[in-house]
Specification:
By secondary structure, this protein is an alpha/beta fold. It is built from 15 helices and 12 strands. The strands form 2 sheets. Strands 1-2-3-5-8-9-10-12 form an 8-stranded parallel beta barrel, surrounded by 8 helices. It has a two-stranded antiparallel ribbon with strand order 6-7. Strand 2, helix 2 and strand 3 form a beta-alpha-beta unit. The longest helix is centred in the N-terminal third of the chain and has 18 residues. The chain is globular, with a radius of gyration of 20 Å.
């Protein structure tokens, strides 16, 4: 199977973190029977609607509840931890579940601090935008009104215009959160240096020894959203790379190209290996899929206004929101690039994503308010992708 899963352990409106975590364990067990290759857990902080704040802990729980599916992080934010602590955590899990653990690392924690430092004080912060009546966003993967001209369509794949992060970078909460994620006065080393330390701890080439960790069978991955340092580091060290279409669709091709250009063969890989993420909702018919997908725009809005991911709304809560033009602009790229529909239609669009990016594997993430609908979405997609439908 060339499909894997990324799970944020979403907390639904009216639910609790306990509900979300139990749902994650249940979904992981089901995903294993559906035939998915990997089950990755994200790392998010200060998000009322996301329970995956400590991926190593959750990975251990998921690995214990499953038998053969690979379990990993998508991704550990290395800017908030030392290489030693990360290797020890994953080495401990690998000691109990050898050969099944993926250590996915991202520099988003470092990037958060950089954005907070770069933000000019004079820039306005993003608060709640004053609502003005407007149509709600579409939820099926096409721009409202069919305006694909707002971005580029490359061999059938929509590459939207880049999202402007400058206003969000100036949000005072960003700097405040960054200050809480590190000890006072701590400074994050260069990302490349940190990755070199992780590799050295795992291989035993460091002057200090990580126990557990040294010699662990973990598969090391780098995750990135652009062709910048993450892609460069992954390529130069011959590591597998995960490119982010579901959060940063405008730069996915740049990320993959940057990685491949930088790639050098290593003990881990003889040639580049890429996984590309996608946001997906599948149901038995289009109408049901679109109904399940309705809350997504409102959820993305909560992230991009600086409030952090809210508890995942119901379709009825989504219907009650009055959309402003500013709201629509905030979420447009994410709505337009989501894969929503019947199993066959979504599988075909995912094959386009795989073909255009040259991905070796796809990493799909699905959030719906109803857990049973989310499980069913993954089941239908696996059947259609694997030809069992």
């Amino acid at each position: 199977m060339t499909l894997s899963i990324l799970d944020l352990a979403p907390i639904s409106s009216g639910g609790t973190a306990r509900d979300a975590l139990l749902n994650t364990i249940d979904l992981a067990r089901r995903a294993e029977t559906f035939g998915y290759r990997r089950y990755w857990l994200a790392e998010h902080h200060f998000a009322p609607g996301v329970a995956s704040s400590a991926p190593a802990v959750l990975i251990g729980l998921v690995a214990a509840a499953t038998g053969r599916i690979r379990v990993g992080s998508g991704a550990v934010q290395l800017g908030h931890q030392t290489p030693l602590s990360v290797v020890e955590q994953f080495g401990l899990i690998d000691a109990l579940y050898p050969g099944r653990i993926d250590l996915g690392i991202g520099r988003s924690g470092q990037r958060r601090a950089e954005l907070a430092a770069e933000a000019a004080p004079a820039k306005p912060s993003l608060g709640e935008l004053a609502p003005a009546p407007a149509a709600p966003p579409a939820s099926g993967g096409a721009a409202p009104g069919g305006e694909a001209a707002a971005g580029r369509v490359i061999d059938g794949l929509l590459i939207p215009p880049p999202f402007d992060w400058s206003r969000l970078a100036a949000h005072p909460q960003l700097a405040f959160h960054a200050s809480l994620l590190q000890q006072p006065g701590a400074q994050t080393p260069d990302f490349a240096e940190q990755i070199d330390d992780v590799i050295a701890f795992l291989t035993g080439d460091h002057q200090a020894h990580a126990v557990p960790g040294e010699g662990a069978e973990v598969e090391l991955w780098i995750l990135g959203s652009s062709g910048g340092q993450s892609a460069q580091v992954a390529g130069e060290r011959g590591l597998p790379f995960a490119a982010n279409y579901h959060v940063s669709p405008s730069s996915v091709l740049e990320a993959v190209e940057g990685y491949r250009k930088a790639f050098k063969p290593s003990k881990a890989l003889a040639e580049p290996y890429v996984i590309v993420s996608a946001d997906v909702v599948v149901a038995g018919d289009d109408a049901t899929a679109r109904e399940l997908a309705k809350p997504y725009g409102l959820w993305v809005r909560s992230i991009r206004t600086g409030a952090g991911a809210r508890t995942y709304p119901t379709p009825e809560e989504a219907d009650a929101h009055v959309w402003s033009a500013e709201d629509l602009a905030l979420v447009k790229d994410r709505i337009d690039t989501r894969f929503v529909g019947t199993p066959e239609a979504v599988a075909e669009r995912l094959r386009v994503l795989r073909r255009v990016t040259g991905a070796d594997e796809l990493l799909v993430t699905t959030i719906t308010h109803d857990h049973a609908a989310r499980v069913r979405s993954f089941e239908l997609l696996a059947d259609a992708w694997d030809g069992r439908a």
